[in-house]
Amino acid sequence: MINLEKLHDYKDVFGFFARQLTYPEKLDFHPSAFEGALSSSHPAYESMKTYWNAMHEYSMEQIEEMYVQTFDFQKKSTLYMTYYKFEEGRERGQMLARLKETYQMFGLEITSSELSDYLPLMCEFLYAADWQGHEKEAAESLDLMVAVMEDGTYHLLKALEKFRSPYFYLIQGLRNTFKTCIIQEAEANGHD
To answer: What global pTM score does this model have?
Structure first.
């Protein structure tokens, strides 16, 4: 179960994740991009700082090449979150349809050729969607979306760790952000 209030509090951070997970552009690596994204008290701060510092060891051309090699040419580090669990199975198509319904519920149409489980798109949605005042309707859909992201990023994190990729720290930061937005079972049931 997702704490929608916390998820909303981290909207700007999800925007940062979305920009860092799309094809790199120079502006995405400007110092102000990181400074404005999260405070030192954010649960992902240490991972993100490590990622940020590591990426600044590379030229823009090297970052672009690393991105393509990591996310476009490696099946194990795909940014399509349902691929890890379903590959090309029928269940994946059903999950993609459910995710697309979530986007549509909030008035966001997928205009690109990307599938609804594309991690940067999902992060962008969490950044842009406004579910305040519609918590009851949003709860189930956002629970599903975050569950898909959480499951997919688990596998992605393991692959990035094997590749010794700086993107490992970015995904680790994303997962740390999720953890703070998930209501533990005892807390959800009103128990200590």
So the answer is: 0.92
Residue 5 DSSP one-character state: H
Q: What would the two tokens of residue 100 be?
A: 């697309």
SS3 182: strand
Whether 4 and 135 have beta carbons less than 8 Å apart is answered as: yes
Q: Find the length of the chain.
A: 192
Categorize the per-residue pLDDT at 136 as very low, low, confident or very high, splitting at 50, 70 and 90: confident
Instruction: Round to the nearest angstrom and report the end-to-end CA distance of the chain.
Output: 16
With tokens 């890890």, the residue in question is 84
Q: Name every residue whose Cβ is closer than 8 Å to that of residue 12 and which is 6 or more positions away in sequence.
A: 36, 37, 38, 127
Please give the structure tokens belonging to residue 2.
């997702």
Which one, of 180, 131, 184, lies nearest residue 6 by Cα? Answer: 180
Confidence of residue 191 (pLDDT cuts 50, 70, 90): very low
CA 168 to chain centroid, in Å, comes to 12
Tokens of 94: 């059903």
Following DSSP, what letter does each residue of 61-127 receive, concatenated? HHHHHHHIIIIIS-GGG-SBTTHHHHTTSHHHHHHHHHHHHHHHHTT----SS--TTBHHHHHHHHH
Work out the burial of residue 100: count CB atoms within 10 Å of its CB; fewer than 13 is exposed, 13-18 middle, 19 or more buried: middle
Residue pair 92/152 in contact (Cβ under 8 Å)? The answer is no
